[in-house]
Amino acid sequence: MNIIFAAFGLFILYMIQKKLYQRNWNKNLNVTMAYSKETAVEGEEAALVEVLVNDKKLPLPALTVKFQTSSRLSFLNSENSSVTDLYYRSDIFSFNGREKITRTLPFTCTRRGYYTITQMALSCTDLLYIEKLTEIRDNFTQLYVYPRYVDIRRLLIPFNQLYGAILSKRRYFEDPFEFRGMREYQPFDSMRRVNWKAFARTGELKVNVYEDTSSQEVCIYLNLENNGYVNHYDIMEENIRLGATLSDMFISKGIPVSLKTNGCDCTSKLPIQVDAGTGAGHQTRLLQSLARIDLELPVRHLSEQIQKDLELGGQIPYIIYITNYCHDDMIKAVNAMARANDSFQMIYTYHRDMQDSFQVSPEILNKTMFWEVEHID
After folding, report:
1. Locate the DUF58 domain: which residues (predicted)?
2. In-domain check, residue 9
3. DSSP secondary-structure letter at 316?
């Protein structure tokens, strides 16, 4: 009889604690995970920081936190994880009441990209490890891994040649939105430039002076079509690095840079274009756009974009065309671009066993820089 009462008592206690955990395990339980920084460069180290707070008296004997992110982030601690096309991790924590745990998971950014964690899965057991309770929570954190810059020593001489060619064509005009100051009125000045408020205040004629802005723009055409070779991603990644490096070098000289590529954004799935601009903020936009390119997505022929631009006409920028793709449609488009614009430079990227496949007219060949890319197995 006593055994029956004891069993009944244990059953009542089990049901009480079961209901208690069902109703309260996830109350005042805060779990966040965030990358330790918002931007990095491929090859750099960063970390994922998990912060868990159990802000209630009820202990949590076994709380499991599961998440997934890109396998291109190489975590140093591989325990409780598995790697396929994604990196999957499952960590178990044991909480007392009113306890906070912080865990830092360092990793290496092995590849350029845009990485997010949007959800996490939480599960918890009751005191007897019988009942399993689960919940899916939203958690947004993002990391831009920018392409690293190429060896500047290899690029310095051709860059100086490009920069000299651009300077020879560069014209300046006054930007009416960039006020610099005032000076004394001269007989050749237009009355429209007179600052009448200053005249009313001082009784002297003064004219507005504005900052000069360069009229010469550099447009980087970045072609990410596969040339038909297997495992061609190392060359296309080098194309992206070249685009990032050149844009930074020109922007640092105050020259506006725009970007047109057939590489597609990993989120919108559309080809990326960035209008011309200067300054550190514009270079950041360019780097973010380059980081978001997904080479697994299908691309259109960049020759189609070139043809549209030629038909539009207008002010022609200095064109830098970066490509490893060398088929008839590209050659035709490049010849048309060169005929329409003598301010043109092509950078052809290749493996050592590919250079013989490059065949263009002598006029284009004179405006072509060859950039060898080391094989990466």
Report:
1. 182-292
2. no
3. P
Phi, psi of 282 (to 5 degrees): -70, -40
What Å distances lie between residue 374 and 51, 152, 281, 371, 377, CA to CA?
A: 42, 16, 32, 10, 10
Q: Name the token pair of 332.
A: 């035709």
Q: Are residues 286 and 222 in the same domain?
A: yes
**Per-residue pLDDT tens over the stretch 64-84:** 999 999 999 999 988 889 998
- Given the structure tokens 């002297």, which residue do they identify? 204
At residue 247, the 3 state secondary structure works out as helix
* Angle, CA of 196, 199 and 203, to the nearest 5°: 160
Which amino acid is residue 343, in one-letter code? S
Enclosing H/E stretch for 182: strand 172-184
| Residue where the block lists tokens 């970390």 | 47
Amino acid identity for residue 304 in this structure: E
Structural domain contains residue 284: yes
Q: Answer positive or negative: Cα dihedral of 280, 283, 289, 291.
A: negative
| Residues 203 and 220 occupy one common structural domain | no
Spatial contact of 60 and 35, defined as CB atoms under 8 Å apart: no
Measured CA to CA, the distance from residue 292 to residue 26 in angstroms comes to 35
CATH code for the domain in which residue 160 is found: 3.40.50
Domain that holds residue 186: 181-213
Query: Cβ(202)–Cβ(344) under 8 Å?
Result: no
pTM here is 0.83
Q: What does the mean pLDDT of the chain come to?
A: 87
- Tokens, residue 347: 């950078």
pLDDT tens, residue by residue, 333-357: 888 887 777 788 899 998 877 666 6
The residue written with tokens 């689960």 in the block is 134
